[in-house]
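User: structure tokens for 3-hydroxyisobutyryl-CoA hydrolase, please.
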Amino acid sequence: MPSLAAAAAARRAGEALRRGVMGGRYLSSLRPSPATAAAPDSDEVLVEGKASARASVLNRPGHLNALTTTMGARLNKFYESWEDSPDIGFVMMKGSGRAFCAGGDVVGLRQLINEGKLDESKDFFRTLYSFIYVLGTYLKPHVAILDGVTMGGGGGVSIPGTFRVATDRTVFATPEVHIGFHPDAAASFYLSHLTGHVGEYLALTGEKLNGVDMLALGLATHYSISEHLDLVDERLAKLVTDDPSVIDSSLAQYGDLVYPDKTSIIHRLAVIDKCFSHETVEEIVDALESEAAQLNEEWCTLALKRLKEASPLALKVSLRSIREGRYQTLDECLVREYRMSINGISKPFYHDFCEGVRARLVDKDLAPKWDPPALEFVSEDMVDSYFAPLGEFEPELKLPTEQREAFI
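Assistant: Done. Predicted tokens:
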């Protein structure tokens, strides 16, 4: 296997999205056998692999592989050791069951907040964001298999890596505004670098994308029918390499050729740019109402409905976050998002997060009582406070930018 002289090339292989341009033995199956929902903490991230590859398997299928602090810590540990090993050429990540990863375990996080365990809540964000920075600056090629639900933090632990394989089962979204939060886990970085104002659209509506649309937008680098993943698996398991171009060609060779259909987001880009380029959320809503009346198209009406269902505070915070992310590096976005997240689960802002999770995922009545209840009551001072420094006795997120080069 070549030495890590190819490390710089591995980074360059993923730079299109980051810059805003849009004889070994087989690995175990890319779709692990079902595991119990109540897996012990040590089984929440499994390890598979032979020859030149290692695969981390997110293993909470009963919770759609939602991430916990323990999982983030194990990922950090594994990836550090794999990066240092001369016998490992590339690394993979996949999920058990019907999801890749549905994001962070926000139900568990809400419980911690309600119990007053803020330090444990902060550990969750610190651990997860630190791993995402490791992934985004990883010295070896990384392949994420996005087979199934891929939402919120699921995008964070995959999109900053080198390769992302979407499938016909992929369902992607950043739906945080509907639980009173902001798209985090590096979302303000990768969404803001998409074409036009698609990032604002996805962040403010929580719109779901399929695998073909992920590929079309550059959120995914390759596509495979889910039933064909075994062929991808077999090919990757035979590779003894750390060369990203070899992995890229193998994924392309064993992937599937697909084209966006007439419902694809690519046919809406002009209208999305027209509406979501406006400076304020209020102006975006007005523009979308005008377009909905003229176009009489379902997607436009649905987008408007989702905007009106979301937390007004979260909408304004998220719009600013995406706009700031467009001019920031990955580490700068993560540091800012950490500040926003800690403010968002602390007084006076934690109400919307706890209420949104309750309404969507706990009681499931879909009737959150937001505070403030409408856009006109969300002041600029509130938004500024959400982005404010954490204070003298609250440490900011520290990332090893001197040891690990930040992307620009």
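User: Anything notable?

Assistant: Residues 1-39 have pLDDT under 50 and may be disordered.
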